[in-house]
Amino acid sequence: MVKRVADLTDLPLKWESIRALRIQAARGLGLFVSTVPGQAGCLGNLKDCSANHEALKAILFLMTKSRTIETPTVDALSEKGKMFLEESNYPDKTSLVAVAHRDAWSAKRCLTTLKRKWIRHEMPKDKFADAKEDIAVAALAPDEPEAAPEPEEPLAEVESMGSEVEPVATEESGASGPAPLAAEDRRR
């Protein structure tokens, strides 16, 4: 079976449109920054993924556009990283290829970590994680009109209140609803 490969032709332009990445490259730092002190490249842990989310988001967008979950090759990422570093005026031209290759491996590690995390179906420890995931799924879902919930019967609500409340017609709509409570009844 042939693997589908992501089309990364627009990747340097996507990275170029992110101001923080341009500034980072112009200062002489790589495209991907490690969260471990003293470490040059990313290790591919979740902390590194969250620290480099902007660069990863551009790659993931192009992977989604190409409809593939296969991580791009290191050679393809290295070539695009070199193009980005050249365009963003990386100060040390002699180490450009080495930094681009290091960034390509960092991206590959982070993408592989995200892919493995996505494939593994785990129960989150955070009680709000399910709600966050539902929001993310709803945001990424195609725009389809949702079925409107059926309105509840207003008379059923009035009947459940008992004999204390009598339906009164309102002037605006002519519909019946619960009678307004007196000031002493509101305090209870």
Short description:
With 188 residues, the protein is mainly alpha-helical.
Largest sheet strand order: 1-2
Helices, by number, come to 9
Rough outline: globular
Number of strands: 2
Distance between the termini: 72 Å
Mean pLDDT: 78
Oligomeric category: single chain
Largest pleated sheet: 2 strands, antiparallel
Query: What fraction of the residues are assigned to beta strands by DSSP?
Result: under 5%
Computed CA radius of gyration, to the nearest angstrom = 28 Å
Structural class: mainly alpha
Measured as a percent range, the helix fraction is 40-55%
Please trace the helix and strand order, writing H or E for each element. HHHHHHHHEEH
Low-confidence stretches: none
Biased composition (Acidic residues): 143-156
Region (Disordered): 139-188
Note the main attributes of this structure.
single chain, mainly alpha, two-stranded antiparallel ribbon
How are the secondary structure elements laid out?
Layout lengths: L10 H6 L2 H8 L19 H6 L1 H13 L8 H14 L8 H24 L9 H12 L13 H7 L6 E3 L6 E3 L4 H4 L2
Antiparallel strand pairs: 1-2
Helix pairs in contact: 5-6
Structure description:
- With 188 residues, the chain is mainly α.
- It is 50% helix and 3% strand.
- It has nine helices and two strands; from the N terminus they run ααααααααββα.
- The radius of gyration is 28 Å and the shape is globular.
